[in-house]
Design a protein that fits this description.
Helix content: 25-40%
Strand content: 15-25%
CATH class of the largest domain: Alpha Beta
CATH topology of the largest domain: Chloramphenicol Acetyltransferase
Number of helices: 12
Largest sheet: 8 strands, mixed
Radius of gyration: 23 Å
Order of helices and strands: EEHEHEEEHEEHHHEHHEEEHHEHEEEH
CATH superfamily of the largest domain: Nonribosomal peptide synthetase, condensation domain
Distance between the termini: 57 Å
Structural class: alpha+beta
Mean pLDDT: 93
Number of strands: 16
Shape: globular
CATH architecture of the largest domain: 2-Layer Sandwich
Amino acid sequence: MPETYLPAPADATGIRATTRIPVRFSGDGAGTGPLSWGQQEIWRTMVHQRSWLPIGGWAPLPAGTTVEDVVADLRWAMRRYPTFRTRLRFAADGTPLQTVAAWGTIGLDVFDVPDGVDAEAYTAAVDAHYRALDYDFVAEWPVRMGVVRVGGRPAYLSTVTCHLVTDGVGGRLMLREVAARAETGPTTGMQPLEQVRWQASPAGQQQREKSLRHWDRMLRQLPPKRPLTPRDGPRHHRGEFHSAALYHATHAVSVVADIDTSQVLMTFLAIALTREAGDGRPAVIRPMVDNRFRRGLGDVVAMVAQHGICVADVAGLPFDEAMRRTGIAAMLAYKWAYHDPAAVAERAAALAGELDLDLDAGVWLNDRRTVSRQMFPGDKPTAEQVRAAAPGEFRWTAAQDDPYDPLNVDVDDEPGRFLLTWFTDTWRTPPARVEALARRVETIAVHQALTALDTAPETRTL
């Protein structure tokens, strides 16, 4: 297994580093073992989607930053985070194993913006270049980092990692720690190899069995399998729904009801799914759960987020009761999202064979908001503001043959509105139905917000 980050070829755009600086590193926690539950789940997703799921991005560097500063930051991160030093091995049967190195060398790329070329556009191209290159799970370190110089001075930094390294929350934690590394204390969270040992312990096996019982109860409530409807063209589509109306409505209901904003959003989605189905069945939502509320996982830079399963029986209920039931169902989903993916997959396959269940039913939900998730900025919207908020704009942005999850929505903050990114298998849920579902969520939200504001005490504010 080579110890260095091997040189990468230029792509069709001609993007190639001016130089590559070897950065030596060492760190604790070396060893080899199975993947943790969180790593197993994202690995299954990678295999299904035929992608190494690169995450990260680019940003301006603080004025005065030198290449040597970035080298020091990279060396520090490689030492501190075992996941940065983790590569895979594969057993004879194809099962992936993680190997954490005690030392090695990684390359820091340095790019120079050509004369007359827009620096930000060039940096974005560098970032896209990192994402587009194939990734070797066995030979490469899972981090690609490049400094972009303008006129010989470092101006931007692109950092792209394999999703096996961490989830989104861990990525934000890493950025904060690197920025304040002089004041950062020793790591305290359980690293993946430690997680594997805990998961094999009596306490971990108890969690495994209890979560498996929860999944068994939820899976049995899935609807029957339904036939697919093949269509011409790429099967999997991606679309964006930008909505100020949903943003303000969610804010208003959350404040009036004094309910967590994610529970409010999930209730809107559950009601919309139930109305779309029209058969009285419970809504199935599979939220991505950040398991860092668990002991030992609070500040770990690793992949610990996993999907839970929430079955909310809200058909025909008043909104307050629907919100209460969704909250209970969501709490159980969060509690038992820390699960053994292989065991759940085996149980799901057995149940599907026995009961003819549609294992792909429901919506995968990834609420990635960072600004409004805990509390919206500003005062509670008025009814006039909710009415005046612009309805959502929907546009389809990509179509491909490589699969996504069957029906997935990511929720992100934008100034004064939400961005809902929808992914769909069009053989199951055609684009027109996805857009109709997005608008139904928005319509339900606005109606419930106006109802709540009409009955709320006038003095209640954020």
